[in-house]
Amino acid sequence: MSDSTRESDAILSAAGKSLVANRDHGGTHRSAESIGRFSAEAKSKHWKKMIKRILIAFAGIWAAAVAIGLIIDGIGFTGIMLTVLAAMVAVGVITRGRKLKIPQRHELKKGDAKQMVASTELWLEAQRPALPAPAVQLVDKLGVQLDALGVQLQTVDQADPAVNEVRELVGEYIPETIDNYRKIPQHLRQETHAGKTADERLTDSLTKLSGEVDRVTRRLAEGALDDLAIKDRYLEYRYGGPEALEDQSK
Question: For a disulfide at 39, which of 8, 121, 153, 233, Cβ 3.0-4.6 Å?
Answer without folding.
Answer: 121
